[in-house]
Design brief:
Mean pLDDT: 91
Helix content: over 70%
Low-confidence stretches: none
Number of domains: 1
Radius of gyration: 19 Å
């Protein structure tokens, strides 16, 4: 079993990994770690599934095109 600090560090790396915010070397090291530790692999899988669920099932609110145009017109460049 990993220490709470190790688990928290890996959870933070999961977020970076899923956000594509890691370098190629970091991705390789992360994937190697995830593949060699079942508890890390499970955390990654659950985080990925949760993100996919949110992306596909949560409806995002929208605003009218008129509001968008008003905001754009009020932005000073």
């Amino acid at each position: 079993m990993r220490t709470p600090e190790q688990m928290e560090d890996f959870r933070q790396k999961i977020d970076l990994y899923l956000d594509n915010a890691l370098s190629n070397e970091e991705v390789t090291a992360f994937e190697s770690t995830a593949n060699s530790h079942p508890e890390y692999s499970s955390l990654l899988e659950r985080a990925s599934e949760f993100r996919n669920l949110v992306k596909t099932k949560v409806k995002r609110s929208t605003c009218s095109q008129n509001l968008i145009n008003t905001i754009k017109n009020n932005i000073k460049m």
